[in-house]
Design a protein that fits this description.
With 241 residues, the protein is of the alpha/beta class. It is built from nine helices and nine strands. Strand 1, helix 1 and strand 2 form a beta-alpha-beta unit. The radius of gyration is 17 Å and the shape is globular.
Length: 241
């Protein structure tokens, strides 16, 4: 692992994740330096999630109480408590490749204007069989506010952003559907974003995922996009005052 001066924070939101969380944490810690941190906001897990987290006995892990207001606000809480120069988001059930952090940081260093980077992923099932060899190809990921207002390309487990974006995205609005779509669109407003081709996680799809590949009913999709448009317009109005 190369030397670096920048501090990396990983923000993870957990709830009843005992089945896969040991692997997730283990592969994250393998990416982190001594002064980095893994901030885990646990939203009141009733299984062995907390016990597994505490069993690592690693000073880089900071376990905090979640707000018990759902996934968006649990991530809000984790992000709020990070102290690093770069913030990576993490689910509780994936697998990080050993060079994920290094490759993402190299992507940031390739252009000072990059405020957010998203990488590709291999999509696997519960038994680690490959569902899609490329998440990016499956989702047709692209940058652009209008594109991502219509169909979101930003996926939390694959994104990292600079600390200066933190104050722009928090608090995450309650009336939006996806926290990662919000983060991606604000990043588009505040700087430059980029997608890199490297497949740096195995993204696990299973029956207990909080997110889904399935489309919502049309009326619900339309309502969500109107809500996003409203909060984005309000954000832009406040920004330009």
């Amino acid at each position: 692992m190369s030397n670096r001066s920048e501090k990396v924070s990983v923000a993870m939101a957990t709830y009843n994740g005992e089945k896969y969380i040991h692997t997730q944490i283990e592969t994250i810690l393998n990416n982190l330096h001594e002064n980095d941190e893994l901030v885990i906001s646990d939203d009141g897990s009733k299984d062995k999630t907390r016990e597994i987290i505490e069993s690592f006995n690693d000073k880089r892990i900071k376990l905090i109480e979640g707000p018990k207001k759902g996934l968006k606000q649990n991530f809000n809480n984790a992000i709020k408590n990070t102290t690093g120069d770069y913030i990576f988001l993490s689910d509780q059930d994936d697998y990080w490749m050993p060079d994920k952090v290094e490759k993402v940081l190299n992507a940031f260093k390739s252009n000072d204007n990059y405020i957010l980077i998203q990488h590709d992923a291999i999509v696997i099932d519960e038994n680690e069989n490959i569902i899609y060899d490329s998440f990016a190809e499956h989702r047709k990921v692209k940058t652009g506010i209008i594109k991502n207002l219509i169909k979101n390309s930003y996926h939390g487990c694959c994104i990292a952003f600079k600390k200066e974006l933190k104050e722009k995205i928090l608090p995450i609005p309650d009336n939006i559907y996806l926290h990662d779509q919000w983060i991606g669109m604000i990043a588009e407003v505040e700087g430059k974003t980029d997608f890199i081709d490297d497949k740096l996680i195995k993204y696990r799809r299973h029956s207990e995922n909080n997110s889904s590949f399935k489309h919502l009913p049309f009326k619900e999709m339309l309502k969500n996009r109107i809500n996003y448009l409203k909060v984005l317009i309000n954000y832009l109005m406040e920004k330009n005052k």
